[in-house]
């Protein structure tokens, strides 16, 4: 089954008309995207968009052989005039299947939002799933056979991929393509980096792909350290790297701190951002979690783990530190980094970068700064990916 992407952008395209934002200003050349529309084997058109005939011509294709036009967006009819020679666009009711004379079978997939998804099986058995913007499948049955290709709103609805992965509809060889791309994510390398964290990729408009052919699917790093200063966006970046995966275990090392209203508001904000399928555990006992088999871990954060570790060994007292505290703390840090080295789980850990600011005025403050620097360096050495987040922008240090 051959797929031509006539467009890969949001319904309004990218750049949006008359939008002055930085993402739209940078969406030039291959980063400019028309509204998403798919042409399958020249016979099936999914979504009719402005300029579809010209887009097909630019891609070296023609719409003259199209036998069926199906709409996925929530509206009831096409937003544009139907080009001469094309059949009138329609929509398949949820759960119903349509068989074309060309041998393609199209099943309408129910969504958790307005619109219609389409699962297409080609004449030779290749399977493709196409989801409209803002939509995720509803009522998925487990287990499911993996699709060869999935095209979805990866940026806007990463939880759709999590749902598909949870039932086996997305497997290691599934080619995940991000479509309906809008100006909420900068184009170019930053878009590619964010999509790679979800195991997905983007392609320019006009590209033709063979469904079921092997593609170099981005490898999702198994161990990642996300560094950053206060309010830099490091926790958001860490959460983004796992939001397309189900059953994530969020490890909160800070505890509840009863009576601290500012801390409670921070915890509440973090909880509201997390997908509902994630579980949360409050603990600083990270080594057993790293040694166990299980779902991905998101550890937020190592800075608070270090505070707890220094409390437990009496590291704030100069005399205790000199006598046994330093040795005990280093042993705990080494135990943690060694557990990170041998873990088989996917892990994303967050930590503060505190070594670039003002030198603390107290000996205990300087001690904490120095030990956190050592912990970050040791942890980073065991990670495939290391990121530094500055002003909400992730700078890749490794990977």
Describe the structure.
The structure is a single chain. The chain is α/β, with parallel strands linked by helices. The chain contains ten helices and 18 strands. It has helices at 22-26, 52-58, 158-167, 189-197, 234-240, 261-273, 286-291, 302-313, 318-342, 363-380; strands spanning 2-7, 37-40, 44-46, 68-70, 97-99, 105-109, 117-121, 127-130, 149-152, 175-178, 208-210, 223-228, 249-252, 279-282, 297-300, 347-352, 385-390, 393-398. The strands form three sheets. It has a seven-stranded mixed β-sheet with strand order 14-13-15-16-12-17-18, sandwiched between helices. Strand 6 and strand 7 form a beta hairpin. Helix 8 packs across helix 9 and helix 9 (318-342) packs parallel to helix 10. The longest helix has 25 residues, at 318-342.
Lay out the secondary structure:
Layout: E1 2-7, H1 22-26, E2 37-40, E3 44-46, H2 52-58, E4 68-70, E5 97-99, E6 105-109, E7 117-121, E8 127-130, E9 149-152, H3 158-167, E10 175-178, H4 189-197, E11 208-210, E12 223-228, H5 234-240, E13 249-252, H6 261-273, E14 279-282, H7 286-291, E15 297-300, H8 302-313, H9 318-342, E16 347-352, H10 363-380, E17 385-390, E18 393-398
Parallel strand pairs: 3-4, 8-9, 9-10, 12-16, 12-17, 13-14, 13-15, 15-16
Antiparallel strand pairs: 1-2, 1-11, 2-3, 5-6, 6-7, 7-8, 17-18
């Amino acid at each position: 089954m051959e797929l031509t992407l006539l467009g890969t952008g949001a319904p309004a395209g990218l750049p949006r008309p008359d939008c002055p934002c930085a993402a739209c200003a940078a969406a030039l050349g291959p980063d400019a995207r028309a509204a998403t529309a798919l042409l399958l084997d020249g016979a099936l058109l999914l979504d009719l968009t402005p300029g579809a005939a010209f887009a097909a011509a630019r891609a070296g294709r023609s719409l003259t052989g199209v036998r069926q036009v199906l709409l996925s967006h929530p509206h009831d009819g096409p937003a544009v005039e139907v080009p001469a020679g094309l059949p009138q666009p329609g929509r398949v009711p949820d759960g119903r299947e349509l068989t074309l004379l060309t041998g393609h079978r199209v099943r309408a997939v129910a969504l958790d939002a307005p619109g219609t998804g389409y699962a297409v099986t080609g004449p030779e058995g290749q399977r493709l799933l196409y989801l409209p913007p803002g939509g995720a499948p509803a009522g998925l049955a487990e287990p499911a056979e993996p699709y060869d290709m999935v095209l979805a709103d990866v940026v806007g609805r990463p939880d759709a991929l999590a749902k598909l992965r949870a039932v086996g509809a997305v497997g290691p060889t599934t080619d995940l393509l991000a479509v309906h791309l809008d100006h909420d994510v900068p184009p170019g390398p930053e878009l590619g980096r964010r999509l790679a964290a979800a195991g997905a990729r983007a392609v320019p408009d006009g590209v033709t792909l063979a469904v079921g052919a092997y593609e170099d699917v981005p490898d999702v790093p198994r161990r990642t350290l996300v560094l950053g200063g206060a309010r830099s966006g490091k926790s958001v970046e860490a959460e983004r790297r796992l939001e397309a995966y189900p059953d994530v275990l969020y490890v909160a090392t800070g505890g509840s701190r009863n009576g601290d209203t500012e801390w409670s508001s921070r915890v509440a904000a973090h909880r509201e951002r997390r997908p509902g399928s994630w579980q949360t555990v409050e603990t600083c006992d990270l080594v057993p979690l790293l040694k166990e088999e299980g779902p991905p871990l998101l550890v937020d954060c190592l800075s608070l783990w270090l505070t707890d570790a220094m409390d437990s060994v009496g590291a704030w007292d100069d005399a205790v530190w000199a006598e046994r505290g330093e040795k005990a703390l280093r042993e705990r840090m080494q135990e943690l980094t060694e557990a990170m080295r041998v873990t088989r789980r996917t892990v994303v850990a967050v930590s503060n970068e505190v070594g670039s600011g003002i030198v603390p005025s107290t000996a205990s403050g300087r001690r904490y700064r120095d030990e956190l620097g050592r912990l970050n360096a040791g942890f980073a050495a065991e990670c495939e990916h290391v990121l530094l987040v500055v002003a909400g922008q992730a700078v890749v240090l490794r990977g």
